[in-house]
From TrEMBL, chain A:
Species of the source: Streptomyces catenulae
Protein name: Urease accessory protein UreG
Record: residues binding GTP: 38-45
Keyword Iron assigned: no
Quaternary structure, from the entry: Homodimer. UreD, UreF and UreG form a complex that acts as a GTP-hydrolysis-dependent molecular chaperone, activating the urease apoprotein by helping to assemble the nickel containing metallocenter of UreC. The UreE protein probably delivers the nickel.
PANTHER family per the UniProt record, alphabetical: UREASE ACCESSORY PROTEIN G
SUPFAM superfamilies reported in the protein's UniProt record: P-loop containing nucleoside triphosphate hydrolases (SSF52540)
Subcellular location: Cytoplasm
CDD domains from the UniProt entry: UreG (cd05540)
Gene3D superfamilies for this protein: P-loop containing nucleotide triphosphate hydrolases
Record gene name: ureG
Start and end residues of each CobW/HypB/UreG nucleotide-binding domain: 34-203
Role: Facilitates the functional incorporation of the urease nickel metallocenter. This process requires GTP hydrolysis, probably effectuated by UreG.
TrEMBL record, chain B:
Organism the protein comes from: Streptomyces catenulae
Subunit structure as annotated in this protein's UniProt entry: UreD, UreF and UreG form a complex that acts as a GTP-hydrolysis-dependent molecular chaperone, activating the urease apoprotein by helping to assemble the nickel containing metallocenter of UreC. The UreE protein probably delivers the nickel.
Function, as annotated: Required for maturation of urease via the functional incorporation of the urease nickel metallocenter.
Chain's gene name: ureF
Protein name: Urease accessory protein UreF
Family to which this protein belongs: Belongs to the UreF family.
Subcellular location: Cytoplasm
One Pfam entry name: UreF
InterPro entries: UreF, UreF_sf
Length: 234, 224
């Protein structure tokens, strides 16, 4: 202990440590990390799959999934072959996805770093949370931006209810707009309520079942990536 | 030395990945060996006096300043099940990340550099305790407590067991935890004369077997 403390006094900066540093140990810029959260079944995996298809020819991509008790999301992405298997990692969450993406992010950080190490250099890593409740948000130590995905079939009062996911996410996606007529949902009301909760933060309406339905989200992601790659790293 | 650091280190909310692990409780619940508070207590007592004692010995020795790489090899020798070795290293890596951010130290940096994919968790725990200015006995206590608190928390989720009953189990096991920690420290005192062979090497064959089986389950709530 004395030896270490003597060294600590001589080299006070030996142990600089920051989970969210924008650079890798070698000084190059790490991948942008975007988290996707939201209630169960709203279309998070469908969004991830569609984003991969839309962006994989222009960007180097990888995905981390956080399933609740299976490897379902990871296996869906593998089955759909949206990315090669070494670009998809599954984190086990002990029945509690919001713990793994917010309170104890250590397993997710390891998955992200392993992907960068084995498949890198990467431009973008998408981190999908298992379906959770309206309060589930990603830690800033894990992701640089987060998308909260809700759908019309959860009812048009969800944006009004708010909660940290709806109010603070960098992007709110309201998915499954194709179902709106069948579930009696008024999209204008949802848009108005979302704006009241979120102010200037963006809201996008998508229908992933239609051709090119993910385009607005892909465009938003490209913008974030441009901002990320042009920002200074120090 | 700063005793309050022990609460930080041993807190179930310390962000080192423990929340996703059941310590063998998930397969025990599935097999019907844990069904209520009484059977949880028996399970935890068994785990404490086997895996818990081994972990406490390794943690105390690391906190005492013994070579972490030699201790890591000693941990491998005491962990025959490959699934449990993988789990111990995964959790060791997560503990390392949390410890380096919490109590930066050259010793932690050195072990992280030597074992980038993780040293055994109890070794990292002991080194973290040392970096926090805690004693070998403190480190042994943290390891012993973790050996029982992990399964107890998991069983609350798995069986919807009354959380008050689960916490009472932990309280009833407190004297056993004290004895385990004391035995671990007593063993580390014999290291100068006997080498690392002095450290406890108790095994729990059923935990080893079910850990291997559990690792192959396609659907499970906990990572181990
Ligand atoms: N009609 C319609 N169905 C959709 C749309 N997007 C996704 N789905 C379907 O909704 C279901 C759930 O989608 P997922 O992408 O698995 O949802 P998720 O949010 O990842 O679900 P969890 O991970 O279980 O929380 C699937 O059957 C999708 O095919 C959409 O825009 N319209
Ligand atoms: Mg999903």
């Amino acid at each position: 202990m004395h030896r270490d403390h003597a060294l600590d006094a001589t080299f006070p900066h030996r142990h600089t440590y920051s989970a969210a540093a924008p650079t890798r140990p070698d000084g190059t810029r790490r991948a942008l990390r975007i988290g996707l959260g939201g209630p169960v079944g709203t279309g998070k995996t469908a969004t991830v799959a569609a984003l991969c298809r839309a962006l994989r020819d222009e960007l180097s991509l990888a995905v981390v999934t956080n399933d609740i008790y299976t490897r379902e999301d990871a296996e869906f992405l593998l089955r759909e072959a949206v990315l090669p298997p070494d670009r998809i990692a599954a984190v086990e969450t002990g029945a509690c996805p919001h713990t793994a993406i917010r309170d104890d992010i250590s397993a997710n950080l390891e998955a992200v770093e392993d992907l960068e190490e084995h498949a890198g250099p990467l431009d973008l890593i998408l981190v999908e949370s298992g379906g959770d409740n309206l309060t589930a948000t990603f830690s800033k130590g894990l992701v640089d931006a987060q998308i909260f995905v809700i759908d019309v079939s959860g009812g048009d009062d969800i944006p009004r209810k708010g909660g940290p996911g709806i109010t603070t996410a960098d992007l709110l996606v309201v998915n499954k707009t194709d179902l709106a007529p069948y579930v009696g949902v008024d999209l204008d009301t949802m848009a108005r309520d979302a704006e009241a909760q979120r102010g200037p933060r963006p809201v996008l309406f998508t229908s992933l079942t239609s051709e090119g339905g993910v385009k607005p989200v892909a465009d938003w992601t490209r913008e974030r990536l441009t901002t990320w790659t042009t920002a200074p790293t120090t | 030395m700063n005793r309050a650091a022990l609460f930080v280190l041993a807190d179930g909310r310390f962000p080192a990945g423990g929340h996703a692990h059941s310590g063998g409780a998930e397969p025990a619940v599935a097999a019907g060996r844990i069904t209520d508070a009484a059977s949880l207590e028996r399970f935890c007592r068994g785990r404490l006096h086997t895996a818990g004692l081994v972990a406490a010995g390794l943690a105390a020795a690391a906190a005492d300043g013994h070579d972490p790489l030699a201790l890591d090899a000693a941990a491998d020798a005491r962990t025959p099940a490959p699934a449990l070795r993988t789990t111990a290293r995964k959790l060791g890596r997560q503990m390392m990340r949390a410890a380096r951010a919490t109590w930066p130290s050259a010793a932690l940096d050195d072990l992280a550099a030597a074992r980038p994919h993780g040293a055994h968790q109890p070794v990292v725990l002991g080194l973290a305790a040392r970096a926090a200015g805690l004693t070998p006995l403190d480190a042994a206590h943290a390891a012993a407590y973790e050996a029982v608190s992990g399964p107890a928390t998991a069983v609350v989720r798995l069986l919807s067991l009354d959380p008050f009953d689960a916490t009472a189990v932990l309280a009833r096991l407190a004297p056993d935890q004290d004895r385990t920690a004391a035995a671990a420290v007593a063993a580390t005192r014999r290291i100068p004369a006997e080498g690392l062979d002095a450290l406890p090497a108790a095994s729990a064959p059923l935990l080893d077997i079910t850990a291997e089986q559990h690792a192959a389950w396609p659907v499970r709530l906990f990572a181990s």
